[in-house]
Design goal:
Number of domains: 1
Helix content: 25-40%
Largest sheet: 7 strands, mixed
Structural class: alpha/beta
Bound molecules: adenosine-5'-diphosphate
CATH class: Alpha Beta
């Protein structure tokens, strides 16, 4: 596990299952419809129960790089922030900007809702095919930059399901915490 302090925000990596996180919000790597899918999306909907799908039906979908918020229903997390990552093979040079936008929009929504702790999965690193080292670089730098510029978040966690992602995110987080400006 890596843990760094950036201004007043702790940023951590942990290996585990994001559906078990007891935080103000977990981030869901959803698809455009917000009506459920496989991977982490499926796991979150199973753990939250049918009320989550009912709430998502009212949101009218979500664009790539944007985010929308619901309650957490049956989850230990109080809220779910649903974001849509880029499909790597379809995004070309826009992939990093879109992935950075997912992280930024999710944290903006957290602040707008007065949330203090947020856990992210490895957005786009499953069926959306983003190479995990590249995704970790974008995610870590974007979060470090966001909390450098915005007050209010106490804890941001990256909760990674497998060793490979855990290692990549831990390395990139430690690197990003020592770096300044990041422009994807
Ligand atoms: P995407 O469509 O954005 O690629 P996926 O759900 O396919 O999303 O995968 C995103 C990442 O989430 C992958 O690295 C996958 O291993 C991971 N993942 C799957 N289930 C969980 C879970 N319960 N907790 C945390 N991460 C998970």
């Amino acid at each position: 596990m890596s843990s760094v302090m950036v201004k007043r925000t702790r940023i951590e990596t942990e290996k585990g299952d994001i559906t078990c996180e007891r935080v103000d919000a977990i981030v869901n790597a959803a698809n455009h419809t917000l009506l459920g899918g496989g991977g982490v999306d499926g796991a979150i909907h199973r753990a939250a129960g049918p009320e989550l799908l009912a709430a998502c039906k009212l949101l009218g979908g979500c664009d790539t790089g944007d985010a929308k918020i619901t309650k957490g229903y049956g989850l230990p997390a109080k809220h779910v922030i649903h974001t849509v990552g880029p499909v790597y093979s379809e995004s070309g040079p826009n992939a990093a900007r879109r992935l950075a936008s997912c992280h930024r929009r999710s944290l903006e929504l957290a602040l707008e809702n007065d949330l203090k702790s947020v856990s992210f999965p490895a957005i786009s690193c499953g069926v959306y095919g983003y190479p995990v080292d590249e995704a970790a670089h974008v995610a870590a730098n974007t979060v470090v930059e966001f909390v450098t510029e915005h007050k209010g978040l106490e804890l941001v966690r990256f909760v990674l399901f497998d060793d490979r992602a855990f290692q990549a995110f831990s390395e990139q987080l430690e690197r990003a915490a020592g770096v300044g400006e990041f422009k994807p």
